[in-house]
């Protein structure tokens, strides 16, 4: 048990309890401010179009989202329901970041193993990472077809940053820990599995955090071009028939999806860090 | 411990023959060590002192086999060292415990890497950790331990693989001064009791005198053996004093002054 827990258990001093409640109030006021900010945004979004200060045709309003959502919920002969759209986007995103993480770890490990390979590939990786991958959306569509081009874009947009982040995490492992393993006669494979990989867990989680968001971007952009299903498609479709209600509902679902994924990773991070 | 004798003399546990070491970089080459010849008898506790950058740590890395000498050879039990061997345990300047492993998992790291039988290794690690007062922390994480406790875990990790020779590379340099004195005493005691051959590298003259029975002075770079002093305390009636007794023994100051002059300490800049 830590000192703090011991104190709390043993009946804390008055000053300590005061300090604790002060801390709690500070935390609550931050939460309150965050909530207020969201409310202000929603109220402005509702009121400004209603008062005709901005054209409601361009923005829709929050109160229109729920009816639109209900309207889009059931399957129709022309369209699947909105939850099916959401699922396709989420599924493609999961494929995208999982592939990016697996390939990222494998490629970063290869670069770590063969330093010469890293030296040769370094400039190409940096350029590939800096390239605007969305420029390839039409080409991917031609090369890979409708479904695969979406996965491909999701992977392309997140892979290079994954490789670079994970590799630099590998490089950041304390060389003295490697030296320590070597004093016991560790082989290169043992250094990789017992020192480098477990020592890079925080980096892997940071890379995952970045990748989830990027993969979602890749999927939505891919869907703009290639799909007849998915939230990206729904946004494209809604804007073409000038139904901003549909666009805004799809975008709101995207916001919820990315928040949920972010929360899931934060939870994973907390679970892993408790072990350290 | 088996002591082989050749022609009546005890054959050395560790022998360095004409050891040279140069480091290469694009800027040029650096001669770190020049013609080091040294024999360490089984069970002997030798300290090597020298100023920072004189190649002390390089010397230990060569003995442990993780570095290869430019010329010359390291022999352990008369056999040439070509890479890390199980006979040699190496304690680095800091504990470098893996923060993702528990204390017990850290202590068995060496055994695990060497492919030893893990059940036995775990039993031994538990024994060692308990002996060092860490019995109740087996399943704690390193960050929950103080610096002195962490360094004791590092000692358990080193001794868990049962090496005959233990190399200590300024193992107390990261600790505060009280912990440092207490741990130096404890570790010296443990290594003596277990009959380990020990080579300690330090820049702390007092530490070298109080812990070892022989002090070797290395010159500035390129490191060469400048002198070799046998440390004995007749005032302690032939018994090896503890590090605290040694520091208070009448002979201590004499050794200290001699070694201080040999080291030619100059304040740089």
Task: Describe this structure as you would to a colleague.
The complex is a heterodimer of chains A (276) and B (269). With 276 residues, chain A is mainly alpha-helical. Chain A folds into two domains: 3-59; 62-273, MetI-like (MetI-like fold). Helix content of chain A is 83%, strand content 0%. Chain A has helices at 3-9, 14-50, 56-59, 62-72, 82-113, 115-130, 137-171, 175-183, 188-199, 201-226, 231-240, 244-273. Chain A starts with a helix and ends with a helix. Chain B contains nine helices and twelve strands. In chain B, strands 8-9-10-5-11-12 form a six-stranded mixed β-sheet, sandwiched between helices. Chain B has a four-stranded antiparallel β-sheet with strand order 4-3-6-7. Chain B has helices at residues 56-64, 103-107, 109-113, 118-131, 147-159, 177-193, 205-211, 243-248, 252-263; strands at 5-6, 9-10, 14-25, 28-40, 45-49, 71-76, 79-80, 88-91, 165-169, 197-202, 214-218, 225-230. The radius of gyration of chain B is 19 Å and the shape is globular. In chain B, helix 5 (147-159) packs parallel to helix 6 (177-193) and helix 7 packs across helix 9. The chains are: A mainly alpha (276), B alpha/beta (269). The A-B interface holds A 174, 176-177, 179-186, 190, 194-195, 198-199, 201, 275-276 and B 64, 66, 83-86, 89-90, 92, 94, 96, 98-101, 109-110, 112-114, 141, 143, 161.
